[in-house]
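Subject: Sanity check before I submit

Could someone independently write out the structure tokens for this chain? I want to compare against mine line by line before I put it in a report. The sequence has 261 residues.
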Amino acid sequence: MKNASESIQVNKYISSSGFCSRRDADKYIEEARVTINNEIALPTSRVNAGDVVAVDGEKIKISRKQSLYIAFNKPKGIASTTDPSDRSNIIYYINHPKRIFPIGRLDKDSEGLILLTNDGDIVNKILRAGNEHEKEYIVTVDKAITTEFVKRMAGGLPVLGTKTLPCIVRQMGNRTFKIILTQGLNRQIRRMCEYLDYKVVSLKRIRIMNIHLKDLPVGKWRVLTPAEMHELQGMLVHSVKTEEASVIKKPKKNKNTDYLY
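---
Independent answer below. Compare away.
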């Protein structure tokens, strides 16, 4: 009998290789696109030394690699996915020579800052809402913003069967506001606005934690600076990954979370 302590969960094995994020690995497993020794992998499958893991027939290899972290100003129309069946995906657009994947999602109709990496370990630390990492957006809606709108957006609204966490909202113009979230429900800002009978006209993310979009042109990317990485790693020191957090708080799984949006 193989020693379970020497094996690794199949989704973690795939993300650790830099092939994709753990979220995407889970998706590929659910779609029966992952094999271990030519047999379809299950979500509970584990990988042992010598096992051959493949996604869509492409063998996955764990190798020592230099971690890469980049900031990208995503244009509208680009999907934040690594799925090769989607020709509008972010990986095809960037066409980076190294295999990278996005940290979280940014809605296809939205633009702005998204981080990409080949470091699967950092992803959950940044994404998990319980770590309270800030994401900042500038949003324009279809009609005049009121004091009541700002107050209710900041206080929390019913979205996807839960109530959004309190957040910072600042009016910038007649129809434009800035919002800082520590949560990441699926299409959260759009759903919050819709609840108050507003429609989002444009949505742009300008900051993730200490990483700012600044004057990075739309459609362009840059490598994070050593100073940015030093500060980011410092902010992540006390952050927990999803699996570690589940042992502490045992939260109910919600497929609508961890979108960084």
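---
OP: Matches mine. For the report I'm noting this point. The chain has eight helices and 17 strands.
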